[in-house]
Each structure stands twice: as structure tokens, then as C-alpha cells.
């Protein structure tokens, strides 16, 4: 098995695990970690494609490497924003969970009780 | 390689392309200035920068619309595939103008809520609102102009990061939860989009939309990428059944923010879906794929309208109406499918879809603003207890009604022109079932609009609790938004010739026969 195939399969596994976690876990923090796992899989795929250098006859394609840095920054900012919202939600409501979409009034009532 | 270099050299900056850079730079400058100057000046800076933004959008429009030639700017002089290009075509211009007018309206409307008054301490909410309002504008400009899939990813994320905190400006637990749920959907959507983009890069070695359009073949890599990107973008556009985040988020935000979120932010990812389906890979789709996405749209129309009818709160009713109206946008895909060439083609259906995007933006902005004023005046927004508000706030009620006229699709509104174009496309392609959905959706929309109007025009049984006064100027802004939606139809049906949306097929053909 070549390195490219091995890392490609790793990327696919990470994407699969992350997607499963993001879809099945109800807790936002777990969802967020799953999102980061999924993101890592995508970034690894960038590396695999750079290594394959499909469109250049050289050893590695620099474009995906440049893209992945930007991608990591964006994912970092997204995670920071989500954690900030989650902390604030915990401070306001005392619980860090997302109820199944309830009507505004119903969740208001629960908070007051 | 030589041939590739030759084709790439064809992409150059055209005269006037610098305006595209201006459209991205001014919002960034305004946001940075607002952050540095602090909460007390943020409102002034944001409002002062709005005419600049409108002028830039107008400057781009007068260069693009008359001839239909796209403006192109190659960033740093590096031509694609290595560099990235900004490109504004008729679709970009339509969205830029809409964005400019709606955000300017929202800014003027929000001045009373968020501008710090003399003698009061400055608040963080005010700073956040004004900076993010301008940030949404800048991100929308970037989304509609970017011509590179990765640049588009960054632009979409900018739009999300600017939009999410607008949901939870008041900091209550319910709106924070709504914002967090919105963010979770949006993040999953954008990472799926990115996965699709990287697959396309791996298969075709470029992320530039024009180059990709000439290279994409119907094969598994392209199918997988298209499915992932579409699914991700649908989550951001809130098409049924991925709409769960939308109603609490849009209904919980302050009225000016709801207007911007419902009118513009969901349309950013929709424009990207149009680009993917029509411009990047028009020949990739089968009849079944176009029928499936339109079936989701039809389900959204029926489900959203029925739920809107059943809502007790006015803002939630309007938010579910957004879920339904987004469904209309997806009806154009099977109608634009040309069986002879087996690909999606711009034409009547695409023009109808774009017109629906724009007229819904104006109508929904007017509706959320009018509902916000009614709620402010009454102190609640229960649909059942609206009686008497029509007497107290006639202008707001007319704004709501005119917006409703456009949503229902009554002539001569923009919504009518859009639905008329879609309907005639459905009839001319023999797809009567979509025509049925269009008509049924219009009836249901009429139902929930009339429900509100009848309640609001009824006379109060008991003497009304003292209503809070509402500034006339704010009512006028809501009315102006709704009037834009109605007048759009007069323009579209009247003397003004609509720009040619979707001339990309021609551009691709030229690129292929080029050097």
C-alpha cells in the first residue's frame, strides 16, 4: 500500500467518524469535537492531494498546502465562536445542551420554572 | 501545460475591475474603523459607509448590466489556476444591489434601537450590531463575486460568522441556543462543501469556476463532490428538511437583524448553489437529480406554509414563511433542464428564480420590520391579539400587506413576476406538477397573510393597553422595503429589460475554442 493510499484511507476514516459523531450526538460540545475531527479528515485529504500532485510532475503541489493553512484558521475561528456561544449559554441557562427545537414560548416557560 | 497557460492568460483584469476590489475593501475598512473607534462611533461609521457601499454597487451595475459583460479582476495579477479571480456578472450585480438596499434599510431602521443616545453609557450590543451589519454586507459582496471555490468557502464562513452573533444579540438563553444550533448546521454544511471542493481539486487540479466548468466530466469524483457540496450548501440555505435551525434563529433576532438574516444571508449559499449547478457542472445532473431537489423545494413550500398558518407568534409565522419561500427557489432546477442537450440552461426558469430571490429579500425585510414595529408597539407579537394594531400603525400594516402581496404572488409585484416566469416554464416544459405546487403554495401563503391582516384590522374588544409610540420614519422604511418588492414586478414586466442571467454556457464554449 502506498503512502498516498494509506493517508487517503485515514482521511476517509476521519471524515466518516466525524460525520457520524456530528449527526448522532445531541450535546453541542461533542458535536463540536466531531466537527473538528471531520475537519481534520478534510485537511488530511488536502495533504494527500498535495502529495499526489496530480497536475504537476513535481513531488508535491504547493497550492493545497497553502489552502490548508487558511482552512485551519477558519476552523479554529469557528470552534472559538462555538465555544464562546456555548459558555455563554451555560452561564445564562445553567445547561450546555440544545433541546430539540421547541417553540420559543415552551423553552421560555421551562427556564422560568 | 502550454495550452493550459494559454487559456489562463485569457483571464485578465478588465477596465473597471478595480471596483470589485473596492466592494470588498470598503466594508473591511468600515468594520476596522468601527472597532477601533468604539461603540459610540460605530453607528455613525456604519451609517456613513453605507452610501459608499451603494455607490460601489451602482458603479459595478452600470458597467455589467447594459452589455451583460462580466467585470473581472485578477488578484495580484496572478491568473487562475494559480491565482484567484473576482468576477461580477448579472447575477452578482442583482445580489449586490439587493444587499446594499436591504442593509441600508436595516441600518436606518435599527438606528433607533442600537444607536447609543446622548448621556447613556455605550453598550457592547450596539458595537456588535453595527460592525456585523457591515460585515454581512462585505461577506455577501465577496460571496457573489468570488470565482474560486476555496475563496468562496472563506467568503461563506465570513458570512456565517457575521450572521450567527446577530441572532443572539439580546443574550437570552433561547436566542443563544438558536444561534448555537444555527452555527452547528452552518459548520457541518461548510465542511461538507470544503470536502467537495478538495475532491474537485484532486480530480481536476483547479478551483477556478471557469476552468473547472471546461474540465469537469460526468464521473464518480465529480458526482461525489457535487453531492457533498450541494448537501452542505442546502444546510446553509435551510432547505427542508435541513431547515430546523431557521425559525428559532430568525424569529429570535432583533427585527433589523431578522430582516437581514432572512432576506440576505440564506441567499448567499443559494447563489453558490446556482453557480455550482448552472455554471460549474451544468451537464452533470440527471433528470432525477433536478426532480429530487425540486421535490424538496415543494415539500418546503407546503410544510413551511402549513406551519406558518399554525404559528401563534408573528415573528415565527414570518420565519416559517421564509422556509416556504426558500422552497420556491429550488423549483427552477427541473424547469431549467434542457433534455435535448441534457444540461441545465439559463433562461426563463433561472430568471424567475433570481427574481424570486430578490423580491423575497425585499418583501421579507419589509415584513420583519413591520412585525417588529407592531411587536414594539403592542409589547407582544401574539397573532391572536393583534386586534387594533391596524388602527394604531396603519403604515406598518400596509407594509406587511404589500410584502404579503409579493409573497403570495399577486400582480404587479416582484413575486408575481417570478412565479409567473416559473409557472410559464413549468407549462412550456410540460411539468404540470410543479405548476400545481406553485398555485397551492400561493393559496397557503394567501392564507397566513390574510390571517394576520384580518386579526390586525379587527377592532379591539376591550380598550387597548396603552400602545408605545413608534417613529413614523421607521414605519416608512418598512414600507419602502415592501414597495421595492412590489415595484420590482412593474419594472420586470414593464419597460426594463431584465439582464441575461446565465450566459455562462457561452463563456465556457469560448474558453474551449480559445487558444
Set down the secondary structure blueprint.
The complex is a heterodimer of chains A (113) and B (515).
Chain A: H1 3-24, H2 28-52, H3 62-93, H4 104-112
Chain B: H1 2-9, H2 18-37, H3 39-64, E1 71-74, E2 85-88, H4 90-114, H5 124-145, H6 149-167, H7 173-204, H8 209-215, H9 220-237, H10 246-252, H11 255-280, H12 287-310, H13 314-329, H14 332-335, E3 337-338, E4 343-344, H15 348-378, H16 389-392, H17 394-408, H18 414-428, H19 432-457, H20 472-493, H21 504-513
Antiparallel strand pairs in B: 1-2, 3-4
Helix pairs in contact in B: 2-3, 2-5, 3-4, 3-5, 4-5, 4-11, 4-15, 4-20, 5-6, 5-11, 6-7, 6-11, 7-9, 7-10, 8-11, 8-21, 9-11, 10-11, 10-13, 11-15, 12-13, 12-19, 13-15, 13-19, 15-17, 15-18, 15-20, 17-19, 17-20, 18-19, 18-20
Please tag this protein with its features.
heterodimer, A: 113 residues, mainly alpha, Helix Hairpins, 78% helix, disordered C terminus, B: 515 residues, two-stranded antiparallel sheet, 4 strands, disordered N terminus
Overall residue-averaged pLDDT value of chain B: 86
The poorly predicted ranges of chain B are: 1-9, 505-515
Q: Which CATH first-tier class of chain A would you pick? A: Mainly Alpha
Total number of β-strand segments of chain A?
A: 0
Number of domains of chain B: 1
Round the Cα radius of gyration of chain B to an integer and report it. 22 Å
> How many β-strands of chain B, per DSSP?
4
Q: What is the subunit arrangement here?
A: heterodimer
Most extensive chain interface and residues per partner:
A-B, 44 and 43 residues
> What percent of residues of chain B are in strands?
under 5%
Class by helix and strand content of chain B? mainly alpha
Instruction: Characterize the largest beta sheet of chain B: strand count, sense, and whether it forms a barrel.
Output: 2 strands, antiparallel
Q: Indicate the mean pLDDT of chain A.
A: 81
How many individual domains of chain A? 1
How is the CATH topology of chain A named?
A: Helix Hairpins
Number of helices of chain B: 21
Terminal-residue CA separation of chain A = 60 Å
Helix content of chain A: over 70%
Largest sheet of chain A: none
Name the helix and strand elements of chain A from N-terminus to C-terminus, one letter apiece.
Answer: HHHH
Strand-and-helix sequence of chain B, N→C? HHHEEHHHHHHHHHHHEEHHHHHHH
